[in-house]
Amino acid sequence: MEHTPSNRPPAETPLTRRGFLGLSAAGIAIGATAAWGPWPGAGVAAAATDDHGGRTLRFAVLTDTHANEDEATRMANLRRIFAAVEAEDPQFVLHCGDITDYGSDESFSAYRDLIPSALWERVRHVPGNHEIRWDTSARRRFQHWFGPTSYGFDAGGVHFMALDPTQLLQEPGLFADDLAALQEELRGVGDRPSLLFLHYPVGGANYYVNDTDALLRTIAPFPVRGIFAGHRHLNEVDRFNGLTQVTTNAARPGPFYLRVTERHGRQGRMLVVEHVALGATDAEVPTVEALAEIPLEKPSASAETIRIAARPGPDEVALTAVAGRSAVAVDARLHPQSVFGARDERAWMPLAARGRSWHGAVDRVGVAPGIHRVQVRAVDETGGRREEWTEVELPGSTRARLAWELDIGGQLQGALIARDSTVVACSTSGHVTAVDAAGRGKPRRIWTAEAGPVHRGAAFTPDGGAVIVPSTDGRLLALDTGTGRTVWTSHFEKPVLTTPLVATTAEHGGRILVSAEDTLRCLTVDGATLWEAPVPVRTAGRAACDGERVYVGAGDGRGYAYDLHTGTVLWSVLTTDRPDRYRQLIYGPWDDWVEVLPTGAVVFSTVADAIAVDPRDGREIWRTPGSYIFAPSLPLPDGGLLLTSEWGVVTAVDQATGATRWSTQAVPRVVNAGPVIDPRTGSAWLVSVGGLLAEVRTADGAASVDRQLFTANTFSTPVLAADRLVVAAQDGVLRAFTL
C-alpha cells in the first residue's frame, strides 16, 4: 500500500520547543482533529477481561528498529516482528525510537510499509537520536509521519507519556523546557499511575541526558511507576526513585520485542514484562523470557528522599546525607560532567552511617575549581535506589572570574558574535539579544528581538550595521545592530539551520551565503536573492567563499564548489569511502564549518579527516586524520591551522602541507564550540561540551584547564568582547568572565 505524505508538514507546536501535547482529556482517539492529518496512533484495541471481570492492560514494546530501505535482510526481520506482534493483538504498541537509521522520508515510508494496516493505528512512537541527529527538518518530518513527539494518553486506568529529550543535530538528550509541560500533564493526571516511554534510559550509569536530575525532581511528587527505553541495544532492568525502568533490546539485529501484561498479585496491580525472541524461521516456537515486574500501585522504599549537605574543600567535598529509614547503604561521587551522551561506571565513595545520617567525603584532587554537581544514592535491602543531586562550587585559583550573567531563556546553541563591546546571542526560545559586555554587575541589554527558534550562529554584515539571523521557522532575518528592528526577511521552505556566511568581495561588496537543508542561497546585504542552487541531501554547516567560489559540505559525502556569480556547480570531491547513503551522510562533511585558508586551499572536515583541496578543481593537497567536523578550524597568523577534534584534542598543522606542529589533549570533548584567540596573549580559549574552560598556547600546544564554568552543556563558540570571555550554554544563560 502506498502512503503519500502531504507536501507541507506542520511547524512545531508553539507550546514548547518540541510541542508537548497533552492528550489525556481526549483519551486515545485524537488523531482526526489534527490539522495536518490523522495521527497514526488514534486506534486502540479494547482491553481484555480478566477472571474477576476487570479490564487488563496488554501491550507490546519495541525499539531501535533502524529501518533502512537499503538493508533487505534487516527489513525482512522487522516485517517478521510486526507480523508476530499483530498476531498477539495488543491494545497498542510503544516504539522507543531510532525508528530508522537517519530519518529520511524514504526510510520512514519503507518502515511504514512493514507494518500491517490493522496494527499501524495502534503503534505509538517517540523519536530517537537517529531521527533527529542528522536531519535539518527532523522534528517536522517526524510529526508528519507519526504525529507529536511528546504526548500523553490513557489506557486501562494508567496514564502513558511519550517523552522527547532528543536534540536537533545533536547526539545526547536534554529535557529543558519540556519539563514544565511534563509537570503540568502529571498534575492533570492526579493519583493515577503513570508510565513514561522515551529513547534514552536515565538514572544509574546512564548519562545520555544531561538534565536527568531535573527530570527526576520533576516527576518525584507524582505516581510515575515505570519507564520503557531503548538506545543501548540490550535488556536491562533498573529500580530507582520508586520506579522500574526497563531498557529493551534493539529489534534491528534480531526478531525481539517485549510483551507486557497486567496481573494482580500481593502488591496489587502490576505489569509483567516478558522478552519475546522469534525463532530463526516462522515454524520455530518463539522463546519467552520473564524480564521484569512493574508495580502500579505502590512505589518501592527507594522513593524516600535524601537531604544532602556538601562542604567543598581544597582536596575533597565533605558530605552529610540524611536518607530514608530503608537505606542500608549510601554512597556518593562528583557527577561526571565530562561524560557526554554515554555511560559511566566508575567507582562511588561509600558513606558511613551515624544514626539516620550518613557521612564521608568524595575526592576532588585533579578536579577543576568551579561549578559541579554531587550525586548521592541510597540503596535499600531489595537493591532499589534513590538518586539525588546537589550543586556545589569547588574553590581554587582560576584566571577566569565571573563578571556577569544574563538569563536569556531557551537554549543558547549557536556561536556568539561580537563587534566592539556588543555581543549578540540567539536562543531556541526565539529571543535574539544584544548585550553590552563592558558593563559591571548586571549587563545592559541593548535590545531583544523575536525570531523563530535559532540553533546556529548569526553574522554581522561587513559594515556592522545589521545582524543576520537564521531561524528554524524558515526565515533569514536582518536586524538593525543598534535597535534590533527587522530590516528585511528572506523566506525559505525549510528550516534555516546553517550559520550565515557574510563574504566581502572587491567586485561585488557583501554577499550572504546561507543554506536551508538542500537549498543554498546567495543574497545581497540588502536581502535580495541573486541565485539559488541545490545541495545534495542536506547541509548544516557554514559555507566558505574566496571571492570567486562558494564551498559547501553536503550530505552525499561530498564537498562542493559553486560559482559565486551564478551558483553553478564547478566541481565536487568525495570525502569518504563509505558505500551507502546513510554512512556517506554521517561520515561526510554535512555539518562542517568549511574554511578557506590564507594559502587559498579549502578545508573540508569529516568525522575521520580534515582535507585540504585545491580551490580550482578539488584536487587533494593534504589530509590529516581526526574528527574535526564539529569545531571550526582556526587559521593562525604564523601559517598554522588550529584543528579541534570532537574528543578535545587540539592540533596545529601547517597550512601549506598539513604537517603536524604539535597536538595536545585540552578538554574531554568538544562539539560545535570552537576555540577563540585572545589577542593580548595569542593563546586560544576553548570550552568543552561539558562546560570546562581550558587555555592552549598556540606557540607550543601547552594546555591548562582553568575552571568548570557551569553544569550545562554548550555547543556555542564563545567570543572575546571588552576584554571578557563571553560564553553561552544550554541553560539559556549568557556569562561573561574576566581573564
TrEMBL record:
Residues 429-503, 508-625, 648-737 form the Pyrrolo-quinoline quinone repeat domain. Transmembrane segments: none annotated. Gene3D superfamilies: 3.60.21.10, YVTN repeat-like/Quinoprotein amine dehydrogenase. It comes from the Bacteria. Pfam families: Metallophos, PQQ_2. InterPro entries: Calcineurin-like_PHP (IPR004843), Metallo-depent_PP-like (IPR029052), PQQ_b-propeller_rpt (IPR018391), PQQ_rpt_dom (IPR002372), Quinoprotein_ADH-like_sf (IPR011047), TAT_signal (IPR006311), WD40/YVTN_repeat-like_dom_sf (IPR015943). Residues 57-233 form the Calcineurin-like phosphoesterase domain. This is PQQ-binding-like beta-propeller repeat protein. The lineage of its organism: Bacteria, Bacillati, Actinomycetota, Actinomycetes, Micrococcales.
